[in-house]
Amino acid sequence: MKTRPTLLILTILTGLFVFLACDDDDQMPLQAAFEADTVTVAAGDSVVFSDRSTGAPATWNWTFEGGDPSTSVLSAPSVVYNEPGTYSVTLELTNNGGSDKIVKEDFITVTYGRLSPDFSADRTTVLASEEVQFTDKSTGIAESWAWEFKNENGVVVTATGQHPVVTFEEIGTYSAKLSVSNPEASETLTKEDYITVLDPFSIEADFTAGSRGTYSGGQVTFEDTSVGTATSWSWTFEGGTPAVSTVQNPTVTYSTPGKYKVTLTASNEKNSSTLEKEAYVVVIPGENLAAYYPYDGDASDAGPNNIAANNIGGITFDGTDRRSENAAVFNGSGALVIPDNPALNFGTSDFSVAVWVKTGNNSKMMVWQESGANGSRDNQAWMRVGNNDKVIQFAVEDSGGGAFQSAEQADLPGDIFDGQWHHIVCVRKGLTTSLFVDGVLVKQGDASSVKEVSNAQDFKIGAQEGPPGEYKTFYTGMLDDLVIYNKALTDEEIVFLFEL
């Protein structure tokens, strides 16, 4: 057993040892040293430095020639080098006992890195003697740029500089070549047939319309998009008022349903060009029309009430419809939602909804739904496809129950899931609900009472709402020319829409 004096002596000796050890470390002279995780990098890359000094430094003062940051007080800084070259690094240390400094000359080597040429032009079709602004979009560090433009007749135009402005005097189609270089590398990119230079008096007629679809009594605004220099325009509008126009961008009224040709002759003092587009304007019946969505690039309403739909979930309008124009593309996770509007609150009145459908998916999918966010027996009307043997279902519901027209495959004129366009029309006339496919009546029946199918809720396209604000049973495929009427369409009107 140790006595108390013995324990006291051991304690004193231990403390003395620790004191002497610390004192020795503090007295060790500072000697600056460091290393880097790499000493050769491409421009834009970073280097991590690590202090390897001895002598218990208290502060670090780094200086990085060519680096970002150029100085640091950290013990292990990270530095980015953006410009090629060789650079020195300096580290100075201090503590209570003094200081030390080390300089490593030409310690970091920064290379140019990989060159990848690219460029763009502010326009690619110009008239002779017009200018084109080119923009270098190359990655890597280039120090020289050589541009060459050559047409099919061997005419060559050259330029230097990073972003040249080039004038093309000779007509033709030019390839564009950019060569970028630095002291370490050279790379070239050629874009064939990139610039088209036209005769100042050449002209090629063309035009578009704000919407190719309208209704009887509605208007279409046309836009001249002719290439070249046009100084006069001569339009002819089959079925339109006016029937002719010399305005560059005319607005035309169409009074009678049908498909109509539009012709434009664009001219200047030396040349003229004529373009004729058959069946370019589509005019649907306007009587009791509530909304018309032709999906010509967006979800706007071409009908008299101008009720635009909100795009929820990324519906696009770049599909190809049966006339080689635009259609809405539904991805199975989005919908078009039309805000509640009196024109779409059918109540107990007659109504019709017509739409073109194209899909290869036979899953249960809601094509459209008026109201109904609170589920079964909520006031609503809807049409969906793909519910097992019920290939198409059209329903009207209220708190008293519902009336359902369910078409099986045997009822239909063909397979609606064949990836082709099919026209589906739902009609409510009094107690009677009817379902038409491709102009043919496939199902019809009477409800026990006239259903109140609307409330203060939205009209959904491509999805079912329920509970309020949440969407499900999404449609996958394309839709086109969705038309809503506040009346019961006749058989003849349904066939007319199908054949339109």
Give structural notes.
- The chain is flat.
- It has four domains: 34-111, Sandwich (Immunoglobulin-like); 119-198, Immunoglobulins (Immunoglobulin-like, Sandwich), CATH 2.60.40.10; 204-284, Immunoglobulins (Immunoglobulin-like); 289-499, Jelly Rolls (Sandwich), CATH 2.60.120.
- Strand 43 and strand 44 (471-472) form a beta hairpin.
- Helix content is 7%, strand content 51%.
- The strands form ten sheets. Strands 29, 31, 32, 34, 39, 40, 41 and 45 form an eight-stranded antiparallel β-sheet that branches. It has a seven-stranded antiparallel β-sheet with strand order 30-33-42-35-36-37-38, with no helix packed on it.
- Mean pLDDT is 93; it is low at 1-25.
- With 500 residues, it is mainly β.
Q: How many DSSP-defined strands?
A: 45
CATH topology of the largest domain: Jelly Rolls
Shape: flat
Classify the helix fraction into a percent range: under 10%
Tell me about the largest β-sheet: 8 strands, antiparallel
**Count of separate structural domains:** 4
Mean pLDDT, to the nearest integer, reads: 93
CATH architecture heading of the largest domain: Sandwich
Supply the helix-strand structural class: mainly beta
Protein name: PKD domain-containing protein
Signal peptide: 1-20
Domain PKD: 30-99, 115-197, 203-288
Keywords: Disulfide bond, Signal
